[in-house]
Write a structure and sequence with these properties.
- This protein is an alpha/beta fold.
- The protein has 2 domains: about 1-200, Rossmann fold (3-Layer(aba) Sandwich), CATH 3.40.50; about 215-370.
- It contains 13 helices and 16 strands.
- It has a 9-stranded mixed sheet with strand order 10-9-8-11-13-15-16-14-12, with helices on both faces. It has a 5-stranded parallel sheet with strand order 3-2-1-4-5, with helices on both faces. It has a two-stranded antiparallel ribbon with strand order 6-7.
- Helix 2 (about 40-50) crosses helix 6 and helix 4 packs across helix 5 (about 115-125).
C-alpha cells in the first residue's frame, strides 16, 4: 500500500489579509495575531485532502501531530498514522524540516504540504530531491514553482500520482524572498534549490516572473485609460504590482508596490491597507477593484493580494473588477488562462469565464479566467 506524507504549516498565509506580506519569524507572526489574523493553511489542507477521500482505502496517510497535519487529516475524514512530537501552537521551521526528514525515512511515495515559499524552502533544505512533493498553496508570497494552482488541484494531482495516472516528475524551483525588503517595497528573490514535483500541465503554477523592461509606454497608456474611466465619488482599490503603480503615479499619488492602496477623487484614502480597513471603507459607497496578473503565473486573486478577500470582492461586486496588464505580460503566459484562487470556491466560479483586460490607451483584449475548482 502506498504512503502519502502530509505536512501543514499552521501559520502560513496568516499575514496576507492583515497586510504583513508574510509571517517568517516569531515577531511578525505575533504582530499578525495581534492584528486579528487567522490561520489559512489548515482549511486549505482539508480542501486538498477532500479530493483524496475517495482513495483513502488505497494508501496510508502519515503525518505530524496536532496542527501540523493530524487535525486536518481527521477533519477531512482520514485516520492518519501520526509520528513525531511538536509543541502545539508554537511550531517553527525546524519542525517542518524535521517532519520532512522523518517522512522521507518512513518511505512516503509523495509528500503533500500546505504552505508557501518558506515552507517549501524548509522542506527542500531537509530532503532536497529525495522526495516527490506537491504544495497546497497557502502562503502570502508564492514565487516558487512547487505549488499546485489551487488546493483542489493539489489534491487532484496527488490522487493522480498515487493512482499511477501521472508518472512524470520534474525538478521545480524553490524560491524565497527577503520579507523585510518585501515589506519595504523591494523584491529580493533567491533560488534555494529544487524539489521534485509531479508533472501535469495546468495543475502546478509556474515560477513567478519579474516585470519586463521597455514597457513604460504601455504602462503609461494603461494608466491613462484607467484614469479616464474613473468616476467621481467612487473608491478605487488598487492591488500590488508595477502595472497598477503606474496608475497612482500618474495621479501624483504614492503607491505601495507590494500592498493594496485606496484612492478616491484624486487623493489617497488609505495606503498599504488590510482586509478589515477595506471592508470599512466599502461601507461608504461604490468601489472598483483594480488588479494585474502576477507575471509568469497569471493569478489575479489569491497570490500577494489576499487583503482583497472574498468578503471584499463580494462587497464591491464581481462586476467592479478592472484587470490591467501589458501585452508582454499576457503573451508570456503562453496561452494559459488568468487564474483565481480566492479561497472561496463559489466566488472562484463566479470569477471564471472571460474578462476584458486593459492593455493600453483605448486598448483591450478578452482573456479567459479559470479557477481549477
Amino acid at each position: 500500500m502506498k504512503k502519502l506524507g502530509l505536512i501543514v504549516n499552521p501559520v502560513a498565509g496568516m499575514g496576507g489579509r492583515v497586510g504583513l506580506k508574510g509571517t517568517d519569524g516569531p515577531a511578525i507572526l505575533e504582530q499578525a495575531r495581534e492584528l486579528g489574523a487567522v490561520p489559512e493553511a489548515p482549511g486549505r489542507a482539508v480542501e486538498a485532502l477532500g479530493r483524496l477521500l475517495r482513495l483513502k482505502d488505497t494508501f496510508n496517510l502519515v503525518t505530524y501531530p496536532h496542527d501540523m497535519g493530524e487535525n486536518e487529516a481527521r477533519r477531512a475524514g482520514f485516520v492518519p498514522t501520526v509520528i513525531g512530537l511538536i509543541e502545539p501552537g508554537r511550531t517553527t521551521g525546524e519542525d517542518t524540516r524535521r517532519a520532512a526528514g522523518d517522512l522521507m525515512d518512513r518511505g512516503v511515495d509523495l509528500l503533500l504540504f500546505a504552505g508557501g515559499d518558506g515552507t517549501a524552502r524548509d522542506i527542500c533544505t531537509a530532503v532536497g530531491a529525495g522526495l516527490v512533493a506537491v504544495g497546497v498553496p497557502a502562503g502570502v508570497k508564492i514565487h516558487s514553482a512547487v505549488c499546485a494552482t489551487t488546493p483542489r488541484s493539489a489534491g487532484d494531482l496527488a490522487a493522480l500520482f498515487l493512482e499511477g495516472k501521472v508518472t512524470r516528475v520534474r525538478e521545480a524551483e524553490v524560491m524565497d524572498i527577503d520579507e523585510e525588503a518585501f515589506r519595504a517595497g523591494r523584491v529580493s528573490a533567491r533560488l534555494y534549490g529544487y524539489l521534485k514535483v509531479p508533472h501535469e500541465a495546468g495543475m502546478v503554477q509556474s515560477l513567478k516572473a519579474g516585470s519586463r523592461g521597455g514597457e513604460e509606454s504601455a504602462l503609461d497608456g494603461i494608466a491613462s485609460e484607467v484614469i479616464d474611466r474613473m468616476e467621481d465619488g467612487r473608491l478605487y482599490v488598487v492591488g500590488p504590482g508595477t502595472t497598477t503603480r503606474a496608475i497612482l503615479e500618474r495621479l501624483g499619488l504614492p503607491k505601495t508596490l507590494l500592498g493594496v492602496d485606496v484612492a478616491q477623487g484624486g487623493r489617497l484614502v488609505a495606503g498599504d491597507t488590510t482586509e478589515s480597513v477595506l471592508l470599512s471603507l466599502l461601507e461608504s459607497g461604490p468601489a472598483r477593484i483594480v488588479v494585474t496578473p502576477i507575471g509568469g503565473q497569471g493569478f489575479i486573486f489569491g497570490r500577494g493580494n489576499q487583503q482583497i478577500s472574498p468578503r471584499v470582492i463580494r462587497k464591491a461586486g464581481v462586476d467592479s473588477i478592472i484587470v490591467v496588464a501589458t501585452m508582454g505580460k499576457l503573451v508570456a503566459l503562453g496561452g494559459n488562462p488568468l487564474l483565481v484562487d480566492t479561497g472561496a470556491s463559489d466566488l472562484n466560479g463566479d470569477l471564471s469565464g472571460y474578462v476584458r483586460v486593459i492593455t493600453g490607451y483605448r486598448q483591450e483584449v478578452a482573456c479567459k479566467v479559470a479557477s481549477y475548482t
